């Protein structure tokens, strides 16, 4: 996957990486910042997604589409689309631009709206990357876990730097007999739940 990243995807990734760094330094308000994953987390997600069982691939929290590009590498390999949800209009505009300039539109299904209201429409989830407002993670968890196929993965971002906010969900997941869990110290922490 990584050896065949197109120039268009590389160019857009670099642009978004630079914009993200600038957002973090120039006082851009929190909700307007891209708040995206670092590249090493993107590679990790690609490998996990490519290795997940058959089924739907989803992302909750598109932002400008940076993490989606990493997941699209896996989607292309699997010859399927990733379904990604975003609520904010300005982020949707940026994501559409990302997918158009990266020439990956056939591999992405960008859906505007509240993922919590729309997750009920998706079944047989093989892989889900959760990267929305941290206060919503537990509600998302409760909707996604029953819909995961056997061996399916839920990957929750910011599990180390937002550990206090996510503690209730993570403590619940650790006792949940439906999943095996592990906290991986890559990027800002990825909490992985695998359906047993």
Question: Which key terms come to mind for this protein?
Answer:
globular; alpha/beta; Rossmann fold; 196 residues; seven-stranded mixed sheet
What does this structure look like?
There is one protein chain. The protein is an alpha/beta fold. The chain has a single domain (2-195), classed as Vaccinia Virus protein VP39 (Rossmann fold, 3-Layer(aba) Sandwich), CATH 3.40.50.150. Helices cover 42% and strands 21% of the residues. It has 7 helices and 7 strands. The chain has helices at 7-25, 39-51, 66-78, 89-101, 115-118, 137-144, 163-175, and strands spanning 56-60, 82-86, 108-112, 125-130, 148-156, 179-184, 190-195. A 7-stranded mixed beta sheet has the order 3-2-1-4-5-7-6, with helices on both faces. Strand 1 (56-60), helix 3 (66-78) and strand 2 form a beta-alpha-beta unit. Helix 2 packs parallel to helix 3. The model has no long low-confidence stretch (mean pLDDT 94).
Quick overview:
With 196 residues, the chain is of the alpha/beta class. Helices cover 42% and strands 21% of the residues.
List the helices and strands and how they pair.
Layout lengths: L6 H19 L13 H13 L4 E5 L5 H13 L3 E5 L2 H13 L6 E5 L2 H4 L6 E6 L6 H8 L3 E9 L6 H13 L3 E6 L5 E6 L1
Parallel strand pairs: 1-2, 1-4, 2-3, 4-5
Antiparallel strand pairs: 5-7, 6-7
Helix pairs in contact: 2-3
Structural class: alpha/beta
For the biggest sheet, the summary is: 7 strands, mixed
Sheet with most strands: strand arrangement: 3-2-1-4-5-7-6
CATH architecture: 3-Layer(aba) Sandwich
CATH topology grouping: Rossmann fold
- The CATH class label is Alpha Beta
Share of helix, binned: 40-55%
Number of domains: 1
What's the total count of β strands? 7
Q: What order do the SSEs take from the amino end to the carboxyl end, as H and E?
A: HHEHEHEHEHEHEE
Global mean pLDDT = 94
Distance between the termini: 27 Å
């Amino acid at each position: 996957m990584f050896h065949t990243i197109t120039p268009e995807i590389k160019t857009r990734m670099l642009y978004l990486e630079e914009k993200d760094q600038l957002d973090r330094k120039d006082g851009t308000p929190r909700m307007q910042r891209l708040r995206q994953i670092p590249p090493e987390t993107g590679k990790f997600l690609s490998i996990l997604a490519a290795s997940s069982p058959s089924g739907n691939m989803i992302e909750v929290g598109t932002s400008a589409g940076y993490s989606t590009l990493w997941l699209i590498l896996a989607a292309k390999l699997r010859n399927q689309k990733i379904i990604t949800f975003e609520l904010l209009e300005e982020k949707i505009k940026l994501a559409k631009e990302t997918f158009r300039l990266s020439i990956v539109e056939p591999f992405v299904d960008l859906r505007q709206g509240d993922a919590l209201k729309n997750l009920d429409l998706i079944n047989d989830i093989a892989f889900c990357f959760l990267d929305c407002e941290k206060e919503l993670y537990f509600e998302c968890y409760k909707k996604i876990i029953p819909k995961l196929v056997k061996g399916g993965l839920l990957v929750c971002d910011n599990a180390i730097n937002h550990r206090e906010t996510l503690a209730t969900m993570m403590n619940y997941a650790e006792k949940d007999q439906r999943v095996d869990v592990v906290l991986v110290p890559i990027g800002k922490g990825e909490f992985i739940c695998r359906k047993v």
